[in-house]
Write a structure and sequence with these properties.
Strand content: 15-25%
Order of helices and strands: EHHHEEEEHEHEHEHHHHEE
Number of domains: 1
Number of strands: 10
CATH class: Alpha Beta
Structural class: alpha/beta
Largest sheet: 8 strands, mixed
CATH superfamily: LigB-like
Distance between the termini: 15 Å
């Protein structure tokens, strides 16, 4: 059967993608951020999965205010980089895994989660920036990817508890897939940041690091955090952290922290990153 071998949490700040694309990673401002991903790329080379289920949020590229699904799964064979207003990022087309995506969709829906099935969509920086951080700048992405979009843009977003439970449902779905596949689940977005209003530029490192701690040792406590606390403590965009709970729910049980990186600022946001492995079981 297929199995989930690891979970990755990673911020998806668009300026990170721009720094990579414009060759600015060696500039003093960016060096500390990218240094924290050097181990991650080495680890990934040794623990490369067959498929990544990548949980992210669309930034008004494939979805508009006319139609915003709470949860949407990409079931296509491929997904082109989106033009977010200044051209598409110069990254490879994302190759999907339609068979596993369709299986996950059917299984999760049977577990009483309502998903929107997307058979044609483009993917923006929310998905491609984490890919660049973990894989560098290859001619082709070395893994297949199932985009899993979560609405954290338009009120009301799903609760952390709902996202955590969704991760558990995804795990059950993957483990019921009959083919032998190594699957990773990535939760992207966050950490604390606010892009507008009087608190624009807000960063709460204390909240962020407590979240990173609990994601490893006590994710159930994070699942109980109400939406308004994210707003108060992590800024208007801090709600993106519920997508990390999808990843953590998919790992279930105890985990081992392989790597942790936290850096501020990156374009006035906090960047967090974790690599987690199940505490029991193989990773390769």
């Amino acid at each position: 059967m297929a199995r989930i071998t690891a979970g990755i949490a990673c911020s998806h700040v668009p300026a990170i993608g721009a720094a990579i694309d414009l060759g600015k990673t060696a500039e003093p401002y960016w060096v500390p951020l990218f240094k924290g991903f050097e181990f991650s790329r080495q680890w990934m080379a040794a623990n490369q999965p067959d498929v990544v289920i990548l949980v992210y949020n669309d930034h008004a590229t494939s979805f508009s205010l006319d139609c915003i699904p709470t949860f949407a799964i990409g079931c296509a064979e491929q997904f082109a980089p989106a033009d977010e207003g200044w051209g598409a990022r110069p990254v490879p087309v994302v190759q999907g895994h339609a068979e596993l995506a369709s299986h996950v969709a059917a299984s999760v829906i049977e577990q009483d989660f309502d998903l929107t099935l997307i058979n044609r969509m483009e993917v923006d920086h929310g998905l491609t920036v984490p890919m660049s951080l973990m894989f560098g700048q290859p001619q082709a992405w070395p893994v297949r990817v199932i985009p899993f979009a979560v609405n954290v843009v338009q009120y009301p977003p799903p609760s952390g508890a709902r996202c955590f439970a969704l991760g558990k449902a995804i795990r059950r779905a993957v483990e019921s897939f009959p083919a032998h596949l190594r699957v990773q689940v990535w939760g992207t977005g966050g950490m604390s940041h606010q892009l507008q209003g009087p608190r624009a530029g807000l960063i709460n490192s204390q909240f962020d690091n407590a979240f990173l701690d609990a994601l490893v040792t006590d994710p159930e406590s994070l699942a109980r955090i109400p939406r308004d606390r994210y707003l108060r403590e992590a800024g208007s965009e801090g709600i993106e952290l519920v997508m990390w709970l999808v990843m953590r729910g998919a790992l279930d049980g105890a985990v081992r922290q392989v790597h942790r990186h936290y850096h501020v600022p990156a374009s006035n946001t906090a960047v967090g990153h974790l690599i987690l492995e199940p505490s029991s079981g193989e990773t390769k």
